[in-house]
Amino acid sequence: MKHITEYLSYVRKNVPFYKDLPSSLDKVEILYKRAIRNNTEKLISNDYNIQQLVEEQTNGTTDHIPLKVYKSKYERGRLDLQLWAKRRTFTQNNIRRFGISYYSNDFLGKTLREKEIIKHDFAFVYIPMNHSNDIEYLNDLKRISKLGIQWLIGPISLFKKYADVCMKYRFKVNIEFCECVSEYVPDVYRKYIRDILGCNLLTQYSCHEFWGIAYSSSVNSPSLELFPNVKCLALKDKRFERELSPTIFTSTFLKAMPLVNYDVGDLIVQDGSTIYNYGYRQSDGIYLSKFVHCSVIDNAFIESLDFEFLPLEQYQIIYSQSKNSVIIISTLNESKTRKAAQMLQEILKSNGEYGVSVDYKASQRKFYRDRLTGKMRAIINARHLNTHEIW
Amino acid sequence: MKTEILKRVCVLCKEICPGIGTYPIKSGTYLIDDLSFDSLMVMQLILAVEKEFGISFPNEKLKLSVVSRVGNIVDVIYDTLNK
After folding, report:
1. Does residue A371 sit at the B interface (CB-CB below 8 Å)?
2. Which of A119, A187, A256, A305 has the most beta carbons within 10 angstroms of its beta carbon?
3. What's the whole-model pTM score?
C-alpha cells in the first residue's frame, strides 16, 4: 500500500493529466482508449521528455489506430529484464540458448537480419519465419537442432507449423520450451505442439505495454504477485469459462506515462476499489450470450478446414459488443477468409447461435507486424471501418 | 580483486557491444544510459558473466536497479565468488 501511495503522490505532482488526482482510487476516472489517445501529452510526466522515451504501440484491433504508450528506456529495460528473470524460474537447467522468431520482411527483421550471437556457450539466435515452403521450415528446425536451441520465442502459429513439419518429415527436435507470444493458446494447439515437439509450452500474454508481462505455465505453480502484498493464486475469466492459472506477473509502476485507472478492454481484476489490468484482451475471445470462445472456433477450424493458416496469414476474430452480433475475420488471403467465415457461420448455427452474423474482410496485403508482440495486424480499407471502438 | 573483476566485465561488455569501442567503462558506468545496451544485451552480459566466472547469477539480483550499473554487477560477482 505504501508503494501505491507513493506512486499516486508522484503522479499527482508530475503528470498534468492527474494534477487533481483524488486520494481515493475508486474516485479516479477510468481512462478508456479514446481518452488515452486524446491526452497522450498530458499523460507524460514532466520528469520526461517525450522525444527520449520509447514509443510502444498496442496491437490495435485490426481496423483501429494502435494506442501509443511511452516508457523510458529504463522502464522498458526493467520490464524486459523481469521477463528474463521469470524465464529463468521455469527451468533448473540454466537454459542458455534461445531462438527468437521474427518476420524477415518487417521492421524487426530488417534490423536484426540473421544475426547470431554465440559466445561463451550461450546463444540468441534470430530465426526468420515467413517461409514459402515446408523445406525452409525444416531447414530452420535443423539449424535449431544444430545450434542446440532449447527455448523458442514466437507466435503459436509458427510452433504449430514446426510441429506439422516435424510430423511430415519425421524430424525430431530437442526443444525444452516454446514460448508463445501474445496470444491465448487453445488447448488443442497446446496439446498438439507439446506432443509432437516434446516441449513445455509457455504463454506470454501481451500486457507489457502497460504493467508487465504475465506468464502461464503448466510446469510450475507460483503464486501471483500483482503488487507487494497483493497476491492471487488463480485467476479465472468466467466470461470464457477457462482458467488462467497458474500465472506469473511482472509488475512495475511506470512513471514516464502513468495510467492509474484504465480500461483498454483487457481483462480486469478488481481487488476492492483497486482495478488491475492484466492484459488479456477481449478481442482474443468472442463474447456471446453463450460464451463462445475463440478456442472453440480454433478447435473446430483445426479439424474442419482443408487448408492451413501460415504464420503470415494469421486470422483474427473480433466480436463487436455494441453491435452484439458481428464477427469479423481477417486474413491475408481472401479465399481462405471467405471459407473460414462460412465455416464459422456453420459452427455458430450448429451451436444455436442464429443471431450472430459473420462478416469478413480481406486485408488487401496491408498486413503489418506489431513490433512488440509479433502479431500480424491488418489495416482494413476505410470503407470497412466500424464507426465505434472494437476492443 | 574487484579491479580484476571489473577488467574482465569490461572485456565482456565490449564483446557484446563492439560499438563501445574505446569508451572508458568504469564501475559507475550505466549499461543502458551510457553504453546503449538493451535488455537482450544485458541478459547476454549476465550469461557471459556466469560463464566467465563460473557462477550462477542470483535471480533476485536480476533487476535493472542492480544490473544496470557495471559496478553493481562487479559487486554481485565478488559477493557470489566469496560466499
Report:
1. no
2. A256
3. 0.65
